[in-house]
């Protein structure tokens, strides 16, 4: 056995079929749907399982996620890859927007701006990412989020612009 083989680590990832959640989302408001995910009644996003983070709280216009950074999040230079912070911010921002939408409405991220302010390591401890809506209009929504540790120290912050898709009203116009 080579030194590289004896040093190898493994991680097993499991997730539920995302299509169950897609079906449920069509029958619930954004807030109802996200609360069902937090309660474990419908599957969350498979990427959350892959990256080891989870939504822990949602209210109208606000979404909170948590992650415990681990070695499997590392980049080749010995710190947590910035993609973890970016993914957490994108998730909290998008879910904050989604929590304000009625049944049948959806959204997509048009723009994501991320500011990393300090390195993250597996010694950082649990991180909390809190997203809050700034504005929700007929077609465009904006939100902001912060990624902090247990003491409130800031690691990253960001903003998003989302396009909102609303169900067609009378006369077929969206």
From TrEMBL:
It comes from the Bacteria. Residues 78-154 form the Thioesterase domain. Keywords: Hydrolase. InterPro entries: ACOT13 (IPR039298), HotDog_dom_sf (IPR029069), PAAI_dom (IPR003736), Thioestr_dom (IPR006683). One of its GO terms (molecular function) is fatty acyl-CoA hydrolase activity. SUPFAM superfamilies: Thioesterase/thiol ester dehydrase-isomerase (SSF54637). It holds the Pfam family 4HBT. Gene3D superfamilies: Hotdog Thioesterase. Belongs to the thioesterase PaaI family. This is Phenylacetic acid degradation protein. It comes from Myxococcus fulvus. The lineage of its organism: Bacteria, Pseudomonadati, Myxococcota, Myxococcia, Myxococcales.
